[in-house]
Amino acid sequence: MSIPIYQVDAFTDRLFAGNPAAVVVLEQQAETEWMQSVAREMNLSETAFVHPQQGGYHLQWFTPQVEVDLCGHATLATAHILWQTSLVNTIDSIRFFTRSGWLTASQRSDLIEMDFPSAPVVPMDVSEEIITAVGGRPDNSYMSRDKWLFEYANESIIRNLKPDFAALKQRTGRALAVTAPSSTPAFDFVSRYFAPWIGIDEDPVTGSAHCILGPYWAQKLGKNHMTAFQASERGGIVYVRISGDRTYVGGKAVTVFSGKLGS
Questions:
Q1: Could you give the domains of the chain?
Q2: Residue 48 in this model has a pLDDT that exceeds 80
């Protein structure tokens, strides 16, 4: 038996940009150890595993090292594949059951928009060790559960940060987002995202991070609709909409290749 597998570049409309994710389409639940082995073999920031279940689809995400609770770009990639391959016939939306509960992906013109829970932040002092490891002192620092958010004064600081990932990994945490106002009118804010704790030094484009970034900048800018740029080497565009306690994260995606995975 062979299993369909796809690689998708998410949060971009062109190949070799955005954030690559693998999507494995299953008929039924697979063993965790096998899924982790596939993710390790693919060696991408996330590999998604999806199969039908009552009311929608069951979706799981794995880095090369661990299973994660939420992944925006791999959810976007999965919805893109289900629609592109006509595995899903519904026009408007797909429901996914995940470790974070039910999530919905909807087609919005030429975008796929995902419905996520917003993640609030609380102010938090940051140690000198973390400041040194990141490479620059933030103007403001926050925590959202076990994830850091650092705000800097301008985009150039964000782009020029050169974190010491080995040093960061020695500190307690799960991930670190750095952000600043955009220097161009096309975008409202920019960010980068570091997660050496789970085996991803820098994630190219991180949909789930915008569940933190979106509400934060919405309050700061007084806007509920924003366009964000994640300023990694590959780069990607994220469309953010805030409504109540939900963050809607939108983007485009392109299929890089498809194949069969031996079981």
A1: 2-108+250-262 (3.10.310.10), 122-243 (3.10.310.10)
A2: yes
